[in-house]
Amino acid sequence: MARGQRFSQRTRRPRRGQPVQRRVLIVSQGEITEPCYIEALKRHWRRGAVDVREHPKNPIALIEWADKETKRNARSGDKYDETWVVFDAERCPNPTVLAQAEAKARAASIQVAMSNPCFEVWLLLHLRYTHAPMVDANAAIAQLQASMPHYAKDRRGAERCMAELIEKVDTAVANAVQLRLFHQDSQAQDIPNPTTNVDLLVEVIRPPPQRASSFQETHHD
């Protein structure tokens, strides 16, 4: 048995009374911020069966690489239950190319976590709700730094900031849902700005609630 297979089975083996962890592959276009956030979330929820990779290419190349990696692991007997790609809409400004990327992801059964204009929209929602349009990534970063002045894009600074933001993840999920509802009501065309569906990926990483013990189920008031 390959070393990777032994490690996967070890991380998937549940403790008594806990469900088996689903194996998830997450491939990020960003090389620092997104992986740092997801790794912090893994540590927070002790989700060892989540694999995070970086592939700083355009969305189509990102999806193709994620598809190959998913199939390679399946052939080795180390199958992923879900595969996600994380990228910024700003990195794919052509609507036709973006539609092609989304179609390719659907055909490969790959889920997409996309933010417009960038991942910092998701981070900002940990701190406050907003639906004000953002011209580009620099504008989103400026708004985030207004609420978190020490936010930085270098790895050490990003790791410190992510550890703080993770504590507010439930606020971010609620704000992301509210933002989608706002755009639905406004009947926004194309890709709404700002928007993010990273909350859907977060809910995949979040561990399921533990089942009550048989004693609790049979001995209650």
Descriptive notes:
The chain contains 10 helices and 5 strands; from the N terminus they run αβαβαβαβααααβαα. With 221 residues, the chain is of the alpha/beta class. It has one domain (22-207): 3-Layer(aba) Sandwich (Rossmann fold), CATH 3.40.50. Strands 2-1-3-4-5 form a 5-stranded mixed sheet, with helices on both faces. Strand 1 (24-28), helix 2 (33-45) and strand 2 (50-54) form a beta-alpha-beta unit. The chain is globular and about 45 Å long. The model is unreliable at 1-14 and 211-221 (pLDDT under 50).
Defining key terms:
221 residues; alpha/beta; Rossmann fold; five-stranded mixed sheet; 11% strand; disordered N terminus
Give the name of the CATH architecture: 3-Layer(aba) Sandwich
Largest sheet: 5 strands, mixed
CATH class: Alpha Beta
Record field, number of beta strands? 5
Report strand order across the widest sheet: 2-1-3-4-5
Structural domains: how many: 1
CATH fold-level label: Rossmann fold
- Low-confidence segments, ≥5 residues, pLDDT <50? 1-14, 211-221
| Radius of gyration based on Cα positions | 19 Å
Outline type? globular
